[in-house]
Fold Carboxypeptidase Q.
Amino acid sequence: MRCPSYLLIIFIVALPAMGMDPSFSFETQANGRLIWKDAQTQLFVSQQTLRQQDQLISVIKFPSHSNLLDLVPSERILARRTYDFYFDIAAISSSDLRLISSLAPAIHQLGGQCGLIETFPLNRQLTQADNEIAPVYSSLATLDAPLSSLESIDQDRILSHIETLVNLGTRFHTTGTVASETVSSLMTAANTNSLFTIEAYEHDITSQNSVIARLTGTSLPEETIVIGAHLDSINNLNNSDAPGADDDASGVAILVEMIQVINSLNLSFARTIELQAYAAEEVGLWGSGDIADDYVSSGKAVVGAMQIDMTMYGPNGEDPTIFLVETDTSRDLRRSAVNLIKNYLDGAYSFAVLSRGTSDHKSWSDRGVPALFGFESIPGYNPYIHSSLDTSSQFNNYALNLQISKLALLFLHHYAGVNAASSEYASEKESLFSSAGSDIALAISSGIYLAAGTSTDVATVELCQIDEATQSDCSQERLLLEQFLDRGTRRIFYGEQALDLAAGQKWRVWAYDQGDDLLQKRDIVLSDP
C-alpha cells in the first residue's frame, strides 16, 4: 500500500546497535506469552514482565536503514528484528498515545504504506480465529428480501455525509470529540424510526470517542455482527489539515447509510447488529482494539466482523472490483463474500494480500473473531491519502463505493438474518446443494492428512467441519488443500497441514472451478478404523 511522498521528513542513515529489553522477543520464548502476531512474525514477552508492568506496546514496521528509532528514547525500545528484505519491525513502550502520535506521520511517510502501527495494552490476550459461526442464511442462497435494501441505497446521501466529515478540516485523534460528535449526529439523523441506539464509546488514552450504533436482535440477541470503519484521519505533514475523504470518511458514510436504509424499511434481524465508527485507527488501531478487548474479556459473543476502509478510488477510474483482503481475515467469510457478490451483485472481485499494512479488522481477528475486509485495488489504491489532497475531488470510482455498500448490507442480511427472509429461506434451504455433484474421492493418510481426488475441471478444494445446526455451513475455519497433481482424468488435491481428526466428526469438502462456482461437494462422517 503506497502513501503519498511529497517530502521525506527523515534522513536515511545507518542505525547503530542498541540495547533491547530481554523480556521482549520476536522469537519464541519458552516461558513467554504471545502478545502480537501477523503472518510473518510474533512478539513474546516474559511472564515476569507481564506481572510487573502495565503499559502500552506499539509494534511498528519501517525501512531497515532509516533512523526512525532515533526519535524514540532508548529505554522505550523493547525489541527489534528484520521483518523482510526492506523493512524492520520494532516494539516500543509508552504510558499513553503521545509518543506514537508524534511518530505516526513519520512511520506512514517513511514506510510508504498504511497500517504499519498497532498499539495495544501489554496485558491483552490473543486468540486464534478458528471457530466459525454459521450465517443465519447461507451465502449460497439468493433471497428476494435483501433486494429492496440494495435498491434503497442513496449514493448522494453517502457523498453528503463524506463532505460533512471532510469539512471538519481534521479528525486526528488529538482534536477531541468533535469528529465523534459529528458522526453521532449523522447516525442520529439517519435513525428515523429510532431502531438503533447510538452511543459514544469513551477510551482512556485518547480524547476521541468511538461511536456505536446498535440494533438488538430478536431471536439471537446475544450474538453480534459488527461492521466497522474508522472516523479519524491523519496528514503526514500537517495534522491540522487532514480531510480524510476516502480514508475513511467514505467508510463511515456507508455505516450512516445502512442505518438510513434499515430504518426506512423498518427491518429487524435475528442477531444483534453493531455499526462501529472507530477512534484513533491511524495511531495503531486503538479504538477497535480497545472495543474488541472489552467485548472479548466481558464474554460478549461477536460472531463476525467486517471492515470498510477506503471505497472511492481506482487506478483506472470506474471499476466495481472489490479486493477481498486475505491478510488477517477468515477464508470462510471470504468464500461467503464471493457467493454474495456472484449471487446478488453480478460483480467482479479479486483476492489480494496486504504485504505489511492492515486495518481495524485485525483487532477482531486477533481476538478470535472471524473477519472480512473488502478494499480498493491493492496494487493501485488512493495515492492521496494521509495528505491534504484526500478530498472528494480525487474520487473516481463511485461504482466501487456502491458495490461495497451493497456487500455490507448483504453481509448483515445473511449473517445477522433479516427476519423478512425467514420464510423464504426455510423453503429454499433444503435445495441449496442439490445442483452440486459429489464426484470426490477422499483418502486419509497417517490419520491426520486428507487428500481429495476430483475431475480435472476443479481448481480449488476446501474443507471444514459442518455446523450441526445448519448442516450447510462451517463450524470451524475453512482449510485449503493447496497442492495438486494430475493423474490421467483425475486431479489429486492434498495439504501439508495436519488435521485434528476424530471419530464422529462431520466434514464437508467443497470443489470449485476456476470461476469459483461450486462444482462438487461431499459430506463425510469419520469413524474409528
